[in-house]
Amino acid sequence: MGMAMIVLLAILAVLVLLVLFVIAVYNALVGLRNQVDNSWSQIDVQLKRRHDLIPNLVETAKAYMKHERETFEAVTNARAQAMGAKSVSDASKAEGILGEALSKFMLVVENYPDLKANQNFLALQEELSSTENKIAFARQAYNDQVLFFNNKIQMFPSNIVAGIFAFNKRDFFGTSAAEKEAPKVSF
User: Fold this and answer.
1) Is the preceding omega at residue 113 within 30 degrees of 0, hence cis?
2) What share of the chain is helix, strand, coil (3-state, %, to 5)?
3) Within its chain, how far is the Cα of 131 from the centroid?
4) Which of 2, 51, 119, 187 has the fewest CB atoms within 10 Å, i.e. the most exposed one?
């Protein structure tokens, strides 16, 4: 066996290892991308649940809150905007606006003791609160997956494979300005 044959086999071995490396990194990136998509679908399920609860909550409140048309319209419009969001960034902004509208709605509810005592309203309010907790949990899981995915596609050497196969950075699902503020407590 000549020296040329050994060099050729070494080059072939390096090429095979390189191809195997690219395949392994590509498969890892696809798996991470799918985990991000799955995490987003978990948020989407909870957001749909939230969107479905809001009309029932508003309808229950309308019987008691006859002079609060602006409040109802703000919640309804924010819900429609949130349901129409197409990207993570748009959904994040729209859900923030919806969250703020719901917070204002709940503040107005405080002025109606009969409504606060209504069993249907209380059940819907509890369901919405539970859904909000699930959304927060799903958002955290999604953002964790996005962080891991974005790190993988930006760090060497997997960034080379990510660039070749057009893996793009994903957006985080942010919080609204109202959620970022600490609650104000006064005695």
Assistant:
1) no
2) 80, 0, 20
3) 13
4) 187
Cα separation, 143 vs 155, whole angstroms: 18
C-alpha 112/C-alpha 125 separation (Å) is 14
CATH of the domain at 161: 1.20.1440.20
Alpha helices in 63-118 (DSSP H): 69-83, 88-109, 113-117
Is the residue at 6 inside a domain? Answer: no
Q: Tell me which residue has tokens 């000549």.
A: 2
Closest CA to 104 of 174, 178, 51: 178
In a domain, 4, yes or no: no
Is residue 82 within 8 Å of residue 95, measured between CB atoms? yes
Can you tell me the distance from the alpha carbon of 44 to that of 94, in angstroms, rounded to the nearest whole number? 13
For residue 172, pLDDT over 80 is answered with yes
What is the domain range of residue 72?
24-180
Structure tokens at 19: 């191809």
Q: What is the mean pLDDT of the chain?
A: 91
1 in any annotated domain = no
The answer to whether 75 and 102 have CB atoms below 8 angstroms apart is yes
Mean pLDDT computed over 66-78: 90
Identity of residue 81: Q
pTM over 0.90: no
Domain contains 14:
no
- DSSP H helices, the chain, are 3-62, 69-83, 88-109, 113-117, 119-154, 158-164, 177-180
